[in-house]
Write a structure and sequence with these properties.
It is an enzyme of class 1 (oxidoreductase). Keywords: Amino-acid biosynthesis, Cytoplasm, NADP, Oxidoreductase, Proline biosynthesis. Helices cover 52% and strands 13% of the residues. It has 247 residues and is an alpha/beta fold. It starts with a helix and ends with a helix. Bound molecules: 1,4-dihydronicotinamide adenine dinucleotide and (2S)-3,4-dihydro-2H-pyrrole-2-carboxylic acid (A1CAB). (2S)-3,4-dihydro-2H-pyrrole-2-carboxylic acid (A1CAB) binds next to helix 6.
């Protein structure tokens, strides 16, 4: 996720980016997008904003090694680790963000804690996509919707693509048609003033093809399955917080 963030930010040419990772392969992978890559965490002392992008179980070690001052911002993208567990380890202002992998293409959906976000962080998030400001109590569900969400959408694109292949399309043709359809539909939802129900209605020509497919979906439990997936991810995000609290 840190690599996706770096790649997206590098495209904007607005930031001087330094990547710090213990793994040489990880450093090599992001080197084209950074001014510097290093294993030396002390470089963080020179940054205005320090993004912590390690796995939840590693964050404490990293926080113990980071020495930041009050004029710096520590932006944590670590799932399930609340601000109040991070703050005791640092003098920096702590802002919690749940990003997603689409940062890489400048299409990230992110959620950020409203009571700690600064204009500096807003500018970073805006540079690589769209963000919403939420209460930290909503972070677990946001983690499920937009953090884990890309995987759920990949799954749905695959289901649509597979149906296209089964109907006779080439694998590549079906992939382009399914993925571009998700992309176009997403743009429509973001830009249109119509509700999603009104948009569905606009695609359903009277006695046409879409209404036949929609009747199948409306009669199915597809929406329940999606909601169950979001709830399972949300539960796991809350569990991660509890596991951290236990330590
Ligand atoms: N993968 C995703 O789509 C998203 C991930 N996140 C969050 O981002 C964080 C990272 O997740 P991933 O990128 O999936 O994991 P990852 O395992 O791919 O990346 C973590 C990186 O941290 C490095 N690392 C481990 N210990 C370190 C240390 N002491 N100092 C410096 N670097 C160290 C590892 O070498 C690795 O390159 C997690 O907390 C996750 O919850 C949040 C939103 C989306
Ligand atoms: O699966 C995970 O735990 C991370 C957090 C959100 C997306 N990936």
């Amino acid at each position: 996720m840190g690599g996706a963030f770096l790649k997206g930010l590098s495209e904007t040419e607005q930031y001087t980016l330094t990547a710090c990772d213990l793994d040489p392969e990880a450093r090599e992978a992001v080197a084209p997008y950074c001014a510097e890559t290093t294993a030396d965490i002390d470089v963080a002392a020179d940054a205005d904003v320090v993004v912590v992008a390690v796995k939840p179980k590693v964050i404490r070690t990293v926080l113990e090694d980071l020495e930041l001052s009050t004029d710096q911002t520590l932006l944590s993208i670590v799932a399930g680790v609340p601000t109040d567990l991070i703050e005791p380890y640092t003098d920096a202002r702590v802002v919690r963000v749940m990003p997603n992998l689409a940062a890489e293409t400048g299409n990230m959906a992110a959620a950020v804690t409203a009571d700690t976000v600064t204009d500096e962080v807003r500018a970073i998030l805006e540079a690589v996509g769209e963000y919403v400001e939420i209460d930290e109590s909503q972070m677990d569900v946001a983690t499920a919707v937009n953090g884990s969400g890309p995987a759920f959408v990949f799954y749905l694109i695959q289901a649509m693509k597979d149906a296209g292949v089964e109907g006779g399309l080439e694998e590549e043709q079906a992939t382009v048609l399914a993925a571009q359809t998700f992309k176009g539909a997403s743009e429509t939802v973001l830009r249109s003033e119509k509700s999603i129900d009104e948009l569905i209605d606009a695609v359903c020509s009277p006695n046409g093809t879409t209404i036949e497919g929609m009747d199948v979906l409306w009669d199915s439990t597809a929406d329940d399955a999606v909601a169950d997936a979001v709830r399972a991810a949300e539960r796991r995000s809350a569990e991660l917080a509890e596991e951290r609290t236990d330590e």
